[in-house]
Amino acid sequence: MINFPTKQKPKQKSKLNFEFFLGIPFYVMIIILVLIPIGMMLLYAFTKTSTGLISIQFTLDNFGEFFIQPTFVSSMIESIYLSFISSLVSLLISYPLAYILSRRKKITQKVIMALITSTMFINSLLLAYAVRSIFEIVGNSFFGDKTYFLGTDFAIITGMVYLYLPFMLLPIYTHMTKIDKNLFESASDLGANKTQTLIRVIIPMSLSSVLTGFMMVFLPASTTLVITKYLGNGQRKMIGDLIDLAIKNGKFGYGAAIALVLAAILILMVSIIKKVDKYEGVLANEE
């Protein structure tokens, strides 16, 4: 019996080694930009250094200092409230806009998206100052006081929506364009009108992009410094201002504790919202 030579399959081990070495730059960036900063923040938040000899002691005083002061707790609540409203307004604007754009011609989609996302390439300081100038002109023209709107919830929410709207629109629009157009025809064949198709098909399948966009707006909005400086008129203090003030005063542990409290709230919100999303991964599985 003659044994013919067979092709040897490439070893799985060498493939894994190649993929590992290919991803080394990514692993290094993750360690430097993510793991090390998070580790330092945890170290500062849960420890304190004693005077004299250098020593590190475990403590919860940084968190206690935050929760026992009503002013700081109220600033946290106000930050979450304003950020949530800003995210909600951005969603109410972005979702129908993304749906309408996804149904238009490709050239129309590209032009409109380029116009909307063009603000992402402009410095946030310039954008905030531009919004402030508009409020000053309107306030001076109609109320005789250019600071009439500054420091109000309306001014802060308007500024946040203007700055962070593209971060809400992009993930929703991208997800909308990937939804199979045959679903619209199938829903129509089954007797569903456009409203029913939107409520029963499109919205459930796009919840994951809504979650992504919501968090992409909520996180920077809750920690912003620019909006409160230019539109808050120095009268409003949010979480970003508290962290900035703590760091400037050399209270790194206290600033890290505030950041961890905010991160815990965000993680809790993500966990709650993800339970609502029953269609996460549907498009990925279809692809």
UniProtKB/TrEMBL annotation:
Give the main location.
membrane
List each copy of the ABC transmembrane type-1 domain by range: 76-273
Q: What GO cellular component entries does it have?
A: plasma membrane
InterPro entries documented for this protein: MetI-like (IPR000515), MetI-like_sf (IPR035906)
Give TM segment ranges: 20-46, 80-100, 112-134, 154-173, 252-273
Give UniProt keywords alphabetically. Cell membrane, Membrane, Transmembrane, Transmembrane helix, Transport
Q: Which PANTHER family match?
A: INNER MEMBRANE ABC TRANSPORTER PERMEASE PROTEIN YDCU-RELATED, INNER MEMBRANE ABC TRANSPORTER PERMEASE PROTEIN YDCU-RELATED-RELATED
Q: What is this protein called?
A: Spermidine/Putrescine ABC transport, permease component PotB
| Annotated source species | Acholeplasma oculi
